Amino acid sequence: MASVKQQTQPQALMKWTTLALAVPSLTACGGAQSALNPAGPMAQDVANVWWWMFGFAVLVWLAVATLWVYAMLRRSQPHSAEQAKRINRRWVIGGGIVLPSVSIAVLLAFGLPTGRSMLPLPVEGEQPLRIRIVGHQWWWEVRYPDQEVVTANQLVLPVGRPADIEVTSADVIHSFWVPRLGGKMDMIPGRTNVIRLEAAHAGAYRGQCSEFCGTQHAFMALHVEALETSDFAAWLERRQQRAAIRPAPGEAGAVFASRCGQCHRVAGVSDGNRAPDLTDLATRPTLGAGVIRNDHDGLRRWLREHQTLKHGNAMPRHDEVPDATLEQIAQWLETLSP
């Protein structure tokens, strides 16, 4: 029995060591924001570049490790001053010039075509969908200019059709990034940058501001959804041809007009332009740009506790608004669905 234990203990040690070394290599290989789990051609190009960089880095590491072992094991031999200079020159030229030059050339060979694929270059056939996204502290304004559709904190794309995303900022520098669909692009006040994305199949993805933009930077998420062509067309049509929205009844309508409507827009009801458009609020999966689920309880909690849930956002507290009135507003907001 002792001999069996002596044989199994090293095996067990090797097993757990292998698992421990494998875990870091698997980190971030999956999930809603994994750039190594691409869901579109642009994202696939980015992932390919990453894997080539990883593979090249492994080769360099192996070469350095091999040379280190060789240097440790070889016997030291005396060299003349001239021989020492010649050896030093070889290492400087090989390790300091040749190796970096080859590395950069290889990476550029794979990286430049990837960057080109995300540029808004002319294409034949169906033209890319044009979408304009404005970053705010801390939410996303999403516009479809050619279709005259406006929403917030959600981006809906058609499957198989490129989309040219025009990004800018209303305040500080933000950065638009949907890891599973492509690279990221900075959103700079007074400047419009464009990045091309495409979803290969239907599904929900997560976008995130990837440039620190203030205290609630981490809570500036973007719900991204790719729909089949017919479903996307229906999504647009419902927002273009929806019935007229009636104001909230009674006291709720007066409170909304005097408070909420000064910043929020609801088509046909208010024209605020400093906060998220609420015209299709009931269709959004989250509130506060990913802070809380948009359901019965989440909506009411957001109206009462938004400064606690997302401290520093521009919406003032509603402490002086009676609970009954807030409930009426919540019930009305739940009807804002095309």
From TrEMBL:
Task performed by this protein: Subunits I and II form the functional core of the enzyme complex. Electrons originating in cytochrome c are transferred via heme a and Cu(A) to the binuclear center formed by heme a3 and Cu(B).
SUPFAM superfamilies per the UniProt record, alphabetical: Cupredoxins, Cytochrome c
Membrane topology value: Multi-pass membrane protein
Pfam families in alphabetical order: COX2 (PF00116), Cytochrom_C (PF00034)
Organism encoding this protein: Stutzerimonas balearica DSM 6083
Enzyme class: translocase
Record-given protein name: cytochrome-c oxidase
Enzyme nomenclature, EC number: 7.1.1.9
Chief localisation class: membrane
Gene3D superfamilies recorded: 1.10.287.90, Cupredoxins - blue copper proteins
Cytochrome oxidase subunit II copper A binding domain ranges (all copies): 126-238
Keyword Lipid metabolism set for record: no
NCBIfam families linked to this entry: CoxB
Location relative to the cell: Membrane
